[in-house]
Specification:
alpha/beta; binds zinc ion; Glyco_hydro/deAcase_b/a-brl; DUF2334 domain-containing protein; DUF2334
Length: 249
């Protein structure tokens, strides 16, 4: 996959939806200012069952303009809310409620339920004229059944917190995602420390580094600045590309 030993960076913008129209536009325009092109744009087809992308033509034109500039549009779940909060273990409960804050739509899904949601989301995107090659679940979390449903729906790849999975050849590319997501001061401090550790240690020589930006990062201004700083630093020694371009290398 990596004939020349080059190193790569995927920048993804999460939770792109008319519900966070202001925040995601701000993120994208700052990334443009920083000459960070070729992003993976994770679109929620119908956030919370209320914010369908089809209802906002301005938002859609903006999405099309990103696609024309070379960004990739990725299906990010269906409505980004977990309606099934029956967790299999206390650990899963902690992950779903505290890490993913009730957004892990596919964490507890059975096969049929997951496939149905994936199809509904995909239908909305295709009505908007958008065909996605990748599917990334909210919170990067999904059950093995949901994973099978995504694969059976013909997506080329997905991404978890620690790996990117190429369904076409079954390969996992190890690369833990760098993210922030403001919660409270202690959690933020730990996150900054942990990201610094990842970048100096486990991720330093990895072929792929991923940085994810969420709308909440803009509301807590420092969080976004912090992520942009990381991207600018990584950009000096890595080629920025989308997930799908990386997997097609
Ligand atoms: Zn999300």
């Amino acid at each position: 996959m990596n004939p020349k030993g080059k190193k790569y960076l995927v920048v993804s913008v999460h939770d792109v939806s008319p519900a966070f129209g202001g925040e995601v536009r701000e993120i994208v325009s700052e990334l443009k200012n920083q000459k960070i092109h070729k992003k993976s744009i994770l679109v929620i087809p119908e956030y919370q069952g209320r914010y369908s992308i089809l209802k906002d033509s301005e938002f859609l034109s903006w999405l099309y303009s990103l696609r024309e500039e070379g960004d990739e549009i990725v299906q990010h779940g269906y409505e980004h809310i977990s309606r099934n909060r029956r967790y299999g273990s206390f650990r899963d409960y902690l992950i779903g409620e505290f890490f993913a804050q009730g957004c892990a739509e596919f964490q507890n899904s059975g096969y049929e339920e997951a496939r149905d949601k994936i199809k509904k989301g995909r239908e909305i995107l295709s009505q908007a004229g958008i065909i996605c090659e990748g599917f990334i679940p909210p919170g990067w979390l999904m059950s093995p059944e949901a994973n099978r449903a995504v694969m059976d729906e013909g997506f080329k790849y997905t991404a978890f917190i620690k790996v990117v999975r190429d369904y076409r050849n079954g390969l996992n590319v190890k690369s833990e995602v760098i993210r922030f997501v403001p919660q409270n001061r202690i959690a933020e401090y730990i996150k900054v420390f942990y990201n610094a550790y990842l970048l100096r240690g486990p991720l330093r020589d990895k072929e792929l580094v991923r940085v994810a930006i969420h709308p909440q990062d803009v509301r807590a201004e420092k969080a976004f600045d912090y992520l942009v700083k990381i991207i600018r630093k990584l950009k000096k020694e890595r080629v920025i590309l989308t997930y799908v371009d990386f997997l097609n290398l």
